[in-house]
Amino acid sequence: MAFVYDLDLAEWEAWVQEQGEPRYRARQIWEGLYRHLWAEPEAFTTLPKALRSRLAETFSFSRLTPTGERFSQDGETHKTLFTLPDGAVIETVRMRYVRRRTLCISSQSGCAMGCVFCATGRLGLFRNLTAGEIVEQVIYYARLLRQQGERVTNIVVMGMGEPLHNYDAVMKALRILNHPQGFRLGARRITISTVGLPHRIRQLAREGKQFRLAVSLHAATDDLRRQLIPLARRYTLAELMDACREYVARTGRRITFEWTMIDGVNDSEDQARALVALVRGLPAHVNLIPLNPVPGYAGRPSPRSRIARFAAVLEEAGIPCTVRVRRGIDIQAGCGQLAGERLAADGKLRFQVHGPGLPPTAAPSGTAG
After folding, report:
1. Distance (Å, rounded) from C-alpha 229 to C-alpha 234?
2. Domain map of the chain by residue range?
3. Cα-flanking dihedrals φ and ψ of residue 227, to 5°?
4. From 1.10.8.60, 3.30.450.40, 1.10.150.530, 3.90.105.10, which CATH number describes the 2-60 domain?
């Protein structure tokens, strides 16, 4: 059965015309899905009854089943574990700020990148999500927020998975969410986070969209980055930064560089100075993120004093930076943590502890589903 959120507006127009209906019916369906957030065919009272029946016969209206849920003690973070029909699991997080209601959404079930300090990377890749499965995460929380008189203001594609490894589905999902006659979330309120696939960054630069880009660096020298991020064995920092410069030249957009602060691993002043040399000349902002402790990884977050010294080196060089406030530590809000816990409890994940800067020894037992 097809999935309603997998279709863009042009595909809906083709479908309604196949049903012998006028083209404007597609827009009625589109507005029902993305403005009214209707969850079942019978809610579409703007459509003839016969067309509502065909919707029910042809399309499913949900693939995500909530199978785990946690709220932080301060109430500012809400995390949901979803299970898909084939057993794949993903996570979505809602974070409440003073003026923003931000969703951190997943693009894959698991991840193939294998970053040593990331819980999702330890799971391996089960499969890519479809565009509709990405979109439904947003719709799920949009309905919850609407009940509280609130709305989704920002999306970060920073949850489970590497977004640029599932490029086509991610871009289709974001175009659906950005559509001015549908969900209408502005492109500048959407951030795509990547560990650094240069050819996809170049492709993103040519899209003509104003989506924000965040690049996970975590190290400013190739030797250290290869220890932390297996993908760095394929793409050097020089290749990555060339792609970033093309992105800036084509879009005029500032890039955010993400840096997870790991005690004694990548938090030295030497690494800070190397980072200054790497990003100098680019409109950039650096997010310093104290490590979110992950079972199976022996690294620890950098102490405040070390983070402050690192930040001072950047600021003295004129590079703006922010120390990100960690959210949801008490509910394991870091991507992949709740899924890994569930898979381990189900006997579908086995792992051993490894040290900072060393490859993980975790491996899924069978499939992730």
Report:
1. 10
2. 2-60, 80-363
3. -70, -35
4. 1.10.150.530
Is 91 annotated as catalytic? yes
Q: Alpha-carbon distance 157 to 135, whole Å?
A: 11
CA dihedral 264, 268, 274, 280 (to 10 degrees): 120
Q: What is the CATH number of domain 80-363?
A: 3.20.20.70
Residue 37: closest CA among 175, 151, 155: 151
Terminal C-alpha separation, the chain? 20
SS3 332: coil
How far is 240 from 197, CA to CA, in rounded Å?
7
Catalytic residue selected from 91, 136, 162, 258: 91
127/369 Cα distance (integer angstroms):
10
Q: Which of 39, 57, 154, 68 is nearest to 332 (CA)?
A: 68
In this predicted model, what pLDDT tens digit does every residue of 148-199 receive, in sequence order? 999 999 999 999 999 999 999 999 999 999 999 999 999 999 999 999 999 9
Among 104, 111, 115, 335, which one carries the catalytic annotation?
335
Q: How does strand 2-3 pair with strand 59-60?
A: parallel
Residue 21 among the catalytic residues: no
Say how far apart CA 196 and CA 50 lie, in whole Å: 48
pTM for the model: 0.89
Q: How far apart are CA 158 and CA 192, in angstroms?
A: 7
Which token pair is 259? Answer: 């840096």
229 close to 265: Cβ distance less than 8 angstroms: no
Q: Contact, 106 vs 121, CB < 8 A?
A: no
> pLDDT tens digits, residue range 87-101?
999 999 999 999 999
